Amino acid sequence: MAFTFFFRDAQTLRLAIEQFHPYIQSRTRITIWSAGCAMGQEPYTFAIILREIIGPYLFRNVKIYATDLDQYGNYGKIINEGKYPLKDLERIPEDILARYFTPADEDPSQRIILEEIRHSVEFHRHDLLSFEPIRSGIHMIICKNVLLHFSAEERIKVWMMFWNTLEEGGFMLHEHTQKLPDELNGKFELMVMNAQIFRKIGK
């Protein structure tokens, strides 16, 4: 299984949401794609920080489609249950942990994510190398620590798929090592200098 943990790179996620907030604040439906989600730590972290920043009223309009190749068929059950061992939650601030997680009845070493957050995340198996989007009309795509495993040609095809499925002005977030190649010039605008947060240019 891919290894990650809750609140990994939380500062970048928070920065992306601060850029994203004005774009979504009047929308009745907010669609986010977390591509390469592994066991759900990143989409759930994003959902919690998003809920903290935009508040409960606007958060009701959020749906995060969390996808992964999931070769062994484990991720869907884990994400749908939203139950994780305490060791995976060590980096979550104490007040956030208390607010968004409750002890599992059958195992005190496990915590379950609040239903409001769990309800916002929906898992689907998906292969990015199919170059087919999960749906159209996406407002933000989060894809971190995945594209580095692809060839340069494959990455460009995935980025073009992202561009095509994003709504006009939609956002895209990558890890800090992932730079866009010259072939994507004119497709995305870099929003900040200290993180790989992009915005779609054109329709």
Automatic annotation (TrEMBL):
All copies of the CheR-type methyltransferase domain together span 1-203
Q: Which GO terms describe its molecular function?
A: S-adenosylmethionine-dependent methyltransferase activity
What is the name of the protein in this document?
A: Chemotaxis protein CheR
Query: Which species?
Result: Methanospirillum lacunae
